[in-house]
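Incident log, structure service

09:12 report received: a user says their structure output differs between two submissions of the same chain.
09:20 pulled the input from the user's history:
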Amino acid sequence: MNFGQALEALNEGKCVARRKWWGTFLFLVAGSNFIVNREPLLSIMGEGAQVTYRPHIDMKDAQGKIVPWLASQTDILAEDWEIVEPAMGGLRHVQGPLQYAP
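09:34 re-ran on a clean worker, output below:
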């Protein structure tokens, strides 16, 4: 599927990945609020300040770490996006060619 279809899937709460991303996937994070109580925001905003995060896309990488994600031009123009589901040890195929199955 194309990037537009991948964005639609993200907005429906699904996880997506490019075919070549072994063990890596994207998910949509809804906006949220929290009260500052630790660094690094403690020294920037002060204890008790309310922080609002806007909705954004995060990536879970192959090492299991979460990082904010920004699309490259290659990602935007790609036609190899797939819907995947996180599973223990990897990803489970949902739509499109099989991505990764340990």
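09:41 both user submissions now match this output. Likely a transient worker issue. Closing.
09:42 reviewer note: The first helix runs from residue 3 to 11. The longest strand covers residues 81-87.
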